[in-house]
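Fold it.
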Amino acid sequence: MSAPQEDLDPQAAPSAETPPPAQKPDDAAESAAEPSVEQPGEDLAALLDAAQKQVADYHDQLLRAHAEVENVRRRAQEDVAKARKFGTESFAESLIPVRDSLEAALAQEDQTVEDWRGGVEATLRQLNAAFDRNQMREIAPAPGEAFDPHRHQAISNVPSAHPQGTVAQTLQKGYLIADRVLRPALVMVSAGPA
């Protein structure tokens, strides 16, 4: 018996002599563009270096900002201390001439009542000018004016011809410094007609 004969069709099966199919040009470009195993590690090290430098810069900026805030706080405290210490300097300068006038009046001998009165009036004008320069104003409510608990201090309620809740009488003037109450006016408040 003879062995079956194989089909000798050249397209049916490749022979051992045929070379393997050639790579496409795109496959070669892709293999050349692929990074090597060492390249990703180098990128991570560079990224870590850059991140550490940025963190160091931020830390330096934070320290500088903290130091600047501390300097501003310290300067503000010094300014407040100076304001407390020298805040009355302007007012004190305004009062010196008033004191000089009072001392001069007391040093004069053999004054008439008219001279004495004239000197006191001149001294009062100096004092009023000092108050005006330093924004100090009187609180002197007139009878019948509405009672203001922020500027007036009630001593008592008394029956009067004025409406209830108004000032019946001012016992002592109050004073403001730049819209801040230095001393409230002492008043008697009307309880209405008896």
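Helices lie at 25-33, 38-86, 89-107, 113-133.
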